[in-house]
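Possible regression after last week's pipeline update?

I re-ran a chain I had predicted before the update to compare outputs. Posting the input and the new output here so someone can diff against the archived version. Not blocking, just want to make sure nothing changed silently.
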Amino acid sequence: MGVGRITIEDVAAAAGVSRQTVTRAMNGMPEISARTRELVLRTAAELGYRPSRFASNLAARRKSRSVGLVLGSLRNPYYTELAAELLDVVAPRGWHVLMASREQGDDVELVAALSGQADAIVGYFTGDETALVTAARGVPLIQVERAATVPGLHAVVLDFDAAIEALLGELRDRGARRFGLIESGGPPGEEGAGAYRPTRRRRAYERFADSDSAGRVVVADESIRGGADGLARLRAAHPGVDTVLVFNDLMAMGAMQQAQLDGVAVPGDLRVVGVDGLSLGAVMTPPLSTLSIDRRAVATEAADIVGTLLDRAEPPPHPPVVRTVTPRPLWRESA
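New output (post-update):
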């Protein structure tokens, strides 16, 4: 037997019974003898086996369920709006939501902490997928934005390839010719520490922009100030840029503020487009155009995956379940 986490298969092998027999014994189900149940329970105790919360809740078929939600940062209104949508979606089901953010620790730490309290965990995860599944201890994980590739991990994928291809096409129709991108290097303090990796948004931009525009990219802190700094550096390096796509709406707001300080008219001299679809963008001057992520659809798809997984009779890990949401342009006045 390996030295890792004890599994239901380990208990079955040590007791000389089937996996189904272990499940029946651990959950007090019928169709096995008292002697077999006692053998399984004794073996599990000796091995230190800890049944997953998923298995316990599956047996009980509890009407009240808890969903963990791991957010990137509570300082970014995108995440708080997503949390509000998830609360609205799960309330009619009688589910509870437990929230955490990466300001409290890394993905693996947060998943490990929530796995003892939640029946499933939804989040924006960036860590190693296998490590996340191990930390979850059998609790299903549903990650937002990136695809799932290992059993036990599921996803609501944001199709930025289709979204950014469509966005750039519509911008060209509006007269845009020389594009630039302000990319996120992560929260303030992370850039330069070996943490930066090109995001899916950047990869999609580079795939569908013309070759000259694909090279007009600056990396900045994921903050309003970072967006302002990013625009200043982008325009210094590429003064002919007439349209800038910004990693998210907060950074785009910073870029618009910097443009105003520099006497650059938006959208007359420079079009600015964010990504997220924050309601806050509507009160900017001019109102911010954005590639809007339908947070209600993300929350609904995530909740549907959770319900599907928790209603399954088979114990985890389950093969990845993946749903897709495609962001859509929300045209206001900045582009």
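Follow-up from reviewer: compared with the archived run. DSSP finds 13 helices and twelve strands in the chain. Marking as no regression found.
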